[in-house]
Design goal:
Layout (H helix, E strand, L loop, with lengths): L4 E4 L5 H10 L1 E4 L6 H8 L3 E6 L6 H5 L6 E4 L9 H6 L3 E3 L6 H17 L1 H9 L2 H4 L14 E5 L3 H12 L3 E5 L15 H7 L2 E4 L13 H7 L4 E4 L8 H9 L5 E4 L10 H5 L3 E3 L8 H21 L11
Length: about 325
């Protein structure tokens, strides 16, 4: 397969780059000072793309008119216009399942950190306040007796629910439809879910359908003891409405691993006292990222050996 040309627009993990360099002829767009000139030169030869972090649409696909596959790193793919890819007869793959447990662990950890203010308590200790001032104040919120509403009960949402059950949390959910074989109560609207719970776990994918789904109305329904945890996509939560709700005590607090305009985080979010912030580390362990990278390789390898992808996105099945 060394004669097959692959495009790599941005650097990827060493285990990905080393294998692809062995299997294919890899054109690393990030190594040139003039990416457009390089695409003009080699675009017709590109048969596949090892992708991370850039948008794919008709304009991009026109630069690589003979591409057959976009092998994307990550379970989310809202940066890829799948309609445009289908129209161009280009298959899209992603890296589900291998990150489910890691992200679910992070989600539960972030929920506990937020409700019990563990990050703030650690800062109190590091600032010398425990030794020189007083113990950290008792936290007004507790995990005990909370009801968890999950927005997006897919693979990761179900893994979070399983973990939450072990903590004794009551669980309900909202999604595009009620799922067969799921015993948790279903709410047909997101506002209804927020009104029924006091901890809203956002696991929904990004895209036009979910943009700003968690808005002022939803936050109002969540109420003054409510906590928002976002482990899905930053675009799902209206950050302006969230900041207003936190400042006005419409809700109690928030824990966020994702943001609307990453890596930018609004200064107001960083200043608010009952907010826990993480730099999009949901799946960021070496083991999990290596497994995700391996799927990028395996999808490309399988496609060019068998004509079938290992993990195509749902629209391509």
């Amino acid at each position: 397969m060394n004669s097959i040309d692959i495009l790599m627009p941005r650097p990827m993990l060493p285990n990905v780059q080393e294998q692809l360099d062995t299997l294919f002829t890899v054109h690393k767009l990030y190594e040139t000072d003039d990416p457009e000139a390089l695409l003009d030169e080699i675009g017709d030869r590109i048969k596949g793309v090892a992708l991370t972090g850039i948008a794919v649409d008709t304009a991009f696909l026109r630069k690589i008119p003979n591409a057959q596959i976009i092998s994307s790193f990550g379970v989310g793919y809202d940066h890829i216009n799948t309609d445009d890819c289908l129209a161009a007869d280009v298959i899209v793959t992603h890296t589900p399942d291998v990150l489910t447990d890691e992200v679910a662990d992070t989600a539960v950890g972030l929920m506990i950190m937020t409700i019990r203010e563990f990050g703030q308590a650690e800062n109190w200790l590091r600032a010398g306040k425990w030794e020189n001032k007083a113990p950290y104040p008792l936290t007004p919120a507790t995990l005990r007796g909370r009801k968890l509403g999950i927005f997006g009960l897919g693979r990761i949402g179900k893994a979070i629910a399983k973990r939450a059950e072990a903590f004794g949390l009551e669980i309900c959910y909202h999604g595009r439809h009620k799922q067969d074989g799921v015993a948790y109560p279903y709410h047909a609207t997101l506002t209804g879910l927020a009104a029924a719970c006091d901890t809203l776990m956002v696991v929904a994918p990004g895209g036009a359908e979910t943009e700003h789904a968690v808005n002022a109305e939803v936050l109002e329904a969540l109420g003054p003891t409510g906590v928002v945890i976002n482990i899905g996509r930053g675009s799902v939560v209206d950050e302006t409405a969230l900041i207003d709700a936190l400042e006005n005590r419409t809700i109690f607090g928030a824990g966020l691993d994702v943001f609307e305009h990453e890596p930018h985080v609004p200064e107001k979010l960083m200043q608010l006292p009952r907010v826990t912030l993480l730099p999009h580390v949901g799946s960021a362990s070496q083991a999990t990222r290596n497994a995700m990278g391996q799927l990028v390789v395996d999808n490309l390898k399988s496609w060019f050996e068998t004509g079938k992808a290992v993990t195509p996105v749902p629209e391509m099945k």
